[in-house]
């Protein structure tokens, strides 16, 4: 559930990022520009905003209003701002001209009433403000530009909260995990580092900006916030009106005396909106040394007699009212003084960083996807720097090791180590690591990594400085698909390691997943022109023989299948290796599908018949399109693997295959093709698969071979190799059902016993009354001899079924040899298993 939530949040995060992110970048830049608007204009406008020293005293407010109005041919003054600092100009705002929404604002010289006009940059800042609030789009505050900026502001809240969730570190109490940038990273990893770490720095400022910015975006939000903050939806401000009939304008002289008396002459500025009617006016007194422009005492005064009607002191206001009446100052950080303004300025200026890094991450993601579909279009990277890269692998059948070594090769020669060699010291010295990890059987680690899983992974590693990724190999037919790979990922992450990218899962011949992994490596500096990781091409072989080994058996029919090379295929493999077969569907099933769809299977598509295409592909449920569309939508059949029961000097590959029947009664894909559907002489697509996890070195001496059923195949290869090398004295412990029907290759095995290749041959027959034993039951009976053989360097090889035999044999061996010794043998390559 957590991963689903993360995936959904991530998708929404990046989608909004490439849409609202551009708007937020513009709003951030304009917001930063407006942060010090007054200071900038003051510097740019000497003689307008600031004045030189003069001898003449300031005019009275009434005289100033009269002179300013006279300069505009009697145009009414609606607002006056008086500055206490004699070096600052006063300000007036006139009534709007007909058809205008807002009247002209002008600075005035308080000594003679001259209009000084607008400061330098005023028009520029008004345009910037329009962009900030509604992108300067038509309609102004009532147009759709305001809706865009409002939605983008909501998106900013989502970015902040979802970003925190998506990057929440496992060590949440470690401040370094939140705030420290790792400048060793480069490329996509650096973009992400900048995105998430700097995002952690500014998240509070962005939430503050967004939550206050919505005040001007939506009326419902403003009213709701007003109620929450003050308990009332009524807003203060605007012109002062009462119910009196219009009267001639009253002078400010008496009211001004009250202002001076109430303030003691200590203020920064006083602003008053002149009433259109009535006698009351509110004087907003900006306190001396105020942190921001809304830090005012509001004095309501009767203009006729100068009586103080109401005093709303800033010091007496509740916090909610302070916030509600100072929302603009909260928005720009000024409520916290100069440090707050600087913080909002810097964080606003940083907004485009998230848009740019987010877009770069998105583009990199899109490039990887395109590269998966068009690998040939990759561009070479000649500047790979992978000297600090470690590639670790845990392999059972060699697939993980192959991918690990291919990974190291395209990375320019990274260090390659088995997972069993990794410890705290190695991880402490490593800055980047790739783990290619196979899951064996029911969610278990490979044999040589079991001690690592049990002991090293028992506690979290110290991986705060490690960037890593995991390639998990598994088989989807097992419930615990890629379980060990995910355990390794969780273990590294629990220690503070940072994922270079999410774990990639590979199921068998999953070319797309391999390409995905390789493309991720390209982002780490790998050669993008390197050949695909797909295994070697299939060779051409001929089905030369097929012999039933157990006629009359109660178990499934087992066959000795013989394959001979065509076109001079090279015969290179070792005992323990695997033959990968590309099977085909039952021709009868293909014909039935074509018949149902009324299609001609002999029709050629891309130089092959339609029937041939379908025969080598996963059968679709229906064929309801044109032949070309059908072929384009087909998925290749997966390969099947079989232990090789022969050696190269035999000149052919021999396999021992038991027919498998699915629940629907049909034969299994691979076993059905090789034992029933393919006529003798049929060309078979085959490729050889090295299996280091079941090979023995030349230095190893005695072999203790244990298996059941068709597991004899892998053991037979080792015995043939030993016979060819003149090696003798080996053991074979083999279990089957019945002596009468299931004595596979009995003459050959007894021949090896006679010539000394085998020193001991123990066969058990689980269904025979005079035996009734399974192969694991032999182990305690030969315990003393087994311990002696192991002490002298013997290697134990187990081949056969995962369910039943393999775990039972493992338990019996542990009971005789002990866990520690068997684990030591597994890590040293002396306890090898090929189970399925």
Query: For the terminal residues, how far apart are their CA atoms?
Result: 32 Å
Number of strands: 27
Quaternary organisation of the protein chains: single chain
What structural class is derived from the secondary structure elements?
alpha/beta
Strand order across the biggest sheet? Answer: 4-3-2-1-5-6-7-8
Estimate the global geometry from the Cα principal axes.
elongated
Largest beta-sheet characterization: 8 strands, antiparallel
Beta-strand content bin: 15-25%
Mean pLDDT: 85
Rg, Cα atoms, Å = 41 Å
Poorly predicted sequence stretches spanning 5 or more consecutive residues: 238-244, 368-387
Q: Please bin the fraction of helical residues.
A: 25-40%
If helices are DSSP runs of H or I spanning 4 or more residues, what is the number of helices?
Answer: 29
Can you characterise this structure?
By secondary structure, this protein is an alpha/beta fold. Strand 3 and strand 4 form a beta hairpin. It is built from 29 helices and 27 strands. Helix 2 (20-34) runs antiparallel to helix 5 (122-134) and helix 2 (20-34) crosses helix 6 (144-166).
Quick recap:
By secondary structure, the chain is an alpha/beta fold. It has 29 helices and 27 strands.
